[in-house]
Amino acid sequence: MNDPGLVLITDGDRLEADAFAHQVAERAVAFMECGLRPGQVVMAPDSPALDLTLTMLALGRIGAGLFPYRSGLDPTERLALAKLAGVEWLWNPDSTGLVPLSDATQTTHVSPESRAALLIKTSGSSGHPQIVMHGYAGLRASASRVNARLGVTAESTWLCCLRLSHIGGAAILYRAARAGARLRLHDGFDAPTVRRELEAHGVTHVSLVPPMLARLLDLGGRAPPSLRVVLVGGQALSRPLAERALAAGWPIRLTYGMTETGSQIATSGPLAVDDGELDTSLVGTLLPDVDVEAPGCDASPERLRIRGPMLMLGYANPERRPGQGLEEGGWFAPADLGCLTDTEQLRILGRTDDRRVIGGTNVSLTKVAQVVQEAPGVSEVQIVAGLDPVWGHRLTAVYAGTRDETELADWCQSHLSGPECPRAFLRLEWLPLLDSGKYDRARIAALVQSSGC
């Protein structure tokens, strides 16, 4: 990446561009004096966020790669991830500094243009943990196109409250560095703290997943007047939540992407209610130079195929050779189902792995969740499918809101077909979240099992 011109602010401390660049240069020199070389990879904790940002940009000066991991990760799991990706170095900002993970660090055998610049652990479209590798050219391609689409400049202030060990957070660092923007860093998401910063510091851009947006809206009040873009992605945004945000003046823009695509490949314009209808399945037009193979929206949705300059190098292996997980011609096929409208907008209509056969009918869990979310008094919902010896599967709606289980069951009976209708309901005060801000589906499923629903 280019030398940083960004102004970084965290925990009340402010680093101007020149001072920040000086610290980055010092860290790069220190790393090289330890023996770090271009093409090698360093694992580093994602907290403190300031330290990870310095490390990321220092590695960029060297031409080395960063593998951020969740702070507090079990050392055994961390070592397993390091072996899977052939990582040579571990950075510990608190004590030992930069240390080799083996007696002899490897020399990568890939060409400079295929060197891994950023590695991110993800569950992947298969549901199995994978480590995604991105190169510097792909990160630059993504940052420049997203900045142009969202109007990110040196005058912008982006508040980053997404974890930096996830692509949504890491991508913000590259965008801010490329634009020379002001960056306000948070170590995780706390709704009252984020709300205060949005109001007090002239924030223009913020990225959120839907549960984060819901928590901010629950605090009440209008959107801060400085906000120009509230980028919402990571999972589907329900229409009721979008309508709540628009009514409070939040400038919502939908985005679609994933770790394998370096964050977003499509972004909507500012959402608005047209003719009384808001379609949150439309995630906008593709970024420049992105190709998507998908049918027109007058046909049945199909599994997408994606190609573009910001696509991953491939899934990691100990030699970090590129190509694993990509199809011939550089295409990537996620599990998402979609189509393209006549105006070249991308519509996302669930996933191939969210469908269950119930009583001989193919049921989309995404569609069921969207319908249940429309019920008055329901603020959040996730649908859990358990096995049933007669019907194949049995749906449970796990939700938060004021409507009781009996009332919601009656509402669902009149708005969903028989196979689509949940057979059990579990009301919680809050739905549990992952550290990424997304819903913790494994924990939600465990709550269903333990409740006997």
TrEMBL record:
Organism of provenance = Allochromatium vinosum (strain ATCC 17899 / DSM 180 / NBRC 103801 / NCIMB 10441 / D) (Chromatium vinosum)
Question: What region holds the AMP-dependent synthetase/ligase domain?
Answer: 110-315
- The organism's lineage? Bacteria, Pseudomonadati, Pseudomonadota, Gammaproteobacteria, Chromatiales
Return the InterPro entries for the record: AMP-bd_C, AMP-bd_C_sf, AMP-dep_synth/lig_dom, ANL_N_sf
- Pfam families in the record, alphabetically? AMP-binding, AMP-binding_C
Would you tell me the protein name for this molecule? AMP-dependent synthetase and ligase
What are the GO MF terms of this UniProt record? medium-chain fatty acid-CoA ligase activity
Q: Where is the AMP-binding enzyme C-terminal domain?
A: 368-438
Q: Which family does it belong to?
A: Belongs to the ATP-dependent AMP-binding enzyme family.
The organism's place on the tree of life at top rank: Bacteria
Q: Which UniProt keywords apply?
A: Ligase
Q: Does the keyword Amino-acid biosynthesis apply?
A: no
Q: Which SUPFAM superfamilies match?
A: Acetyl-CoA synthetase-like (SSF56801)
> Mind listing the GO biological process terms from this record?
fatty acid metabolic process
